[in-house]
Amino acid sequence: MKDLRIVFMGTPEFAVGILDAIIKENKHNIVGVITAADKPAGRGQKIKYSAVKEYALENNLHLLQPTNLKSEEFLSELQTLNANLQIVVAFRMLPKVVWEMPELGTFNLHASLLPNYRGAAPINWAIINGETKTGVTTFFIDDKIDTGAMILSKEIAISETDSAGELHNALMSLGCDAVLETLGIISKGNVRTIIQHETSDTKTAYKLDRHNCKIDFTKNVTEIYNLIRGLSPYPAAWCDFKDVEQQWSVKIYDITMEILPHDEPIGKLITTKKEMKISVLGGFIHINALQFPGKKKMMTYELLNGIGFSENAIAL
Predict the structure, then answer these.
(1) CATH code of 286's domain
(2) Count of CB atoms within 10 A of residue 107's CB?
(3) Is the pTM higher than 0.85?
(4) Which of helix, strand or coil describes residue 247?
């Protein structure tokens, strides 16, 4: 059994769950934590710490926040930590000089069953594409993105109602198990890796942007349903509501799907005093929670208490 001296690299809440699991297992020594530099956020542009930084400070962990991963100052400080293993969870692409540094290598936890859904948003795209299963994979980093030799993977089912937020939490829990098991394998010297083989059917987890988060109401009801839940709660699917001479850009968070033949025009916005639905190909999308510009996220019935729509209202 080899003693592990670990440098952990990560930024969001997903990474915090993994780091916390390693520390609570209390079998390995975390000699350093690396996370993103502080940056201003929100309307007030106040300096915001990453979730990993907040955790590291709370737990008195040695913290580094390099702006340049190739700088001599950072590399020298990283070297002095004398780590023999590095773990990366939702961080950034590392230069070769960093991932090659430790004796036992650098492994990454990725929230998909590689080689499928390499890239920035694997959780979202698995739901958007209507997958019924996904998982997590640990692999040794190489000079490309999410292509390295796999150590192990764990699978989980995706239900028809899972949102990206719910799947995120489930995969974080599964990821804890995967990382702890990977650490056990490495410390015992029992690593047997599997090379990734990409095929023409391999799917990619493209970076999310305003364009691919826009709802296309000409698609069928199932595709629209999957897109909205796959982007909830973040970054959220969006569309425009138009009524008479007014138009609003609206984020949609929580929906239910009704598969039902109908003769309504595609995109028609149908409201009562408490409910809202949009007619689409093959059925209706019932909107339960949404956000209008300049307002907080709210339940649909709350919105309809203060605003009414005509029979000509449409979703674009």
Answers:
(1) 3.10.25.10
(2) 26
(3) yes
(4) strand
183 and 267 in a single domain? The answer is no
Residue 259 inside a domain? The answer is yes
**Among 139, 155, 143, which residue's Cα sits nearest to residue 196?**
139
Contact 198, 158 (CB under 8 A): no
Q: Taking Cα atoms as reference points, which of 225, 115, 90 lies closest to residue 168?
A: 90
Q: Name the phi and psi angles at 169, rounded to 5.
A: -65, -40
- Do 115 and 226 fall within a single domain? no
171, 55: one domain: yes
Overall size of the chain counted in residues: 316
* The one-letter amino acid at 11: T
pLDDT digits (tens, 9 = 90+) for 142-178: 999 999 999 999 999 999 999 999 999 999 999 999 9
Alpha-carbon span 90 to 75, nearest angstrom: 20
Interval 237-262 mean pLDDT:
96
Q: Which residue has the higher pLDDT, 13 or 45?
A: 13
